[in-house]
Specification:
CATH architecture: Up-down Bundle
Helix content: 55-70%
Number of strands: 2
Number of helices: 6
Number of domains: 1
Strand content: under 5%
Oligomer: single chain
CATH topology: Four Helix Bundle (Hemerythrin (Met), subunit A)
Shape: globular
């Protein structure tokens, strides 16, 4: 086993893997999401949701590198959520909420919903192996 192989965290379902470096990147980016959430402005909370979706895309891109979009990769990730279909559906909801936020000029998300959406992203990232439980 080479040193490179040692640092791979194999994913038996997906075609890709998350390295220790990838996991650290996700942890660092998630810390930034939480810092944004701590801000008082609606814009900071909006950015927190957008950044959380970027973190999700980063993880999914590592697991399913040959897919063009987050949505396509998220469909393939369903296999990883065996026995956790509610969490999978909630992750889809969080991704769709982010899309609505970005594409609908008049979309406003209350703080409680922002918090719930970020929790859905966080739980999904744990299941995918991007964040430690």
């Amino acid at each position: 086993m080479s040193l490179f192989d040692f640092f791979k965290l194999k994913n038996t379902v997906g075609r890709g893997y998350l390295s220790i470096y990838d996991q650290q990147t996700v942890a660092d980016k998630w810390q930034q999401v939480e810092e944004l959430l701590g801000g008082n402005s609606a814009e900071a909370k909006r950015r927190a949701v957008i950044e959380a979706d970027k973190v999700l895309d980063y993880v999914l891109d590592r697991l399913f590198p040959n897919q063009a979009s987050t949505g396509e990769r998220l469909k393939l990730a369903k296999e990883i959520f065996v026995g956790r279909i509610q969490e999978y559906d909630e992750l889809w909801f969080a991704h769709k909420a982010r899309n609505e936020m970005v594409h609908n000029l008049n979309f406003e998300m209350p703080t409680a919903e922002v918090n719930a959406t970020l929790e859905k992203f966080k739980e999904g990232l744990k299941i995918l192996g991007g964040l430690r439980p």
